[in-house]
Model the fold of this input.
Amino acid sequence: NQGADMGPSAAPDEKVPDAYDAPIKSDNQGADMGPSAAPDEKVPDTASFVVVLFYSVLTVAALTIAIPTNVTYAQAFGFDPELGGLIVGLVPFASALAQPIVYHFLGIYEFKRIILVCCVINMVGASMYALAQPSGSFAMLAVARFIQGSVGGPSYLTTYVSKTTSESTRSKYMVFVSTGISVGYGLGPLLGLVTEVIANAANIRHVTF
Done:
């Protein structure tokens, strides 16, 4: 038990597990008992929940950052502006297809490990998306957005909350996750717009991150 966190009521030889570092189970295994929680209440570890909350913001921002530039990006490939919606729509479509697969791995591996892998894959997809226009490959653009969507589903975060909280505390933490998602919906288009303005000012056409 060396290095284990000791809860306020844990015996010296007891380890209080962190659900962020454990597979998502169907029972109460892996939940933390907060220092002010009642015996029948479960709350997630604070540090882990902050990471999850931050991830919820970035996940949704990655989805919506392309909204201000999707039409311009489609036109750069010679397509009709209406196909700009495809650039945005591929992400939630891929997320819906990938969720059963990711959730399967959430029941096997640590939640933190799965999220870190998702972050790396998301970065690969974002890089491919940025390089799609210089390469002239619309297929790369479509694959890039599909990759981002497959690992960027915000429902993974609500799954974490549902498994690390009790019924009496769940709504409180769900509100925080919903707030993070809402911030991401506003932050993504704002970052996309700022990026486009900077690119235009520097005379760099169709730059998207």
User: Anything to note?
Assistant: Helices lie at 46-64, 70-76, 84-106, 111-135, 138-150, 155-164, 167-201. The longest helix spans residues 167-201. Residues 198 and 205 are 10 Å apart (CA to CA).
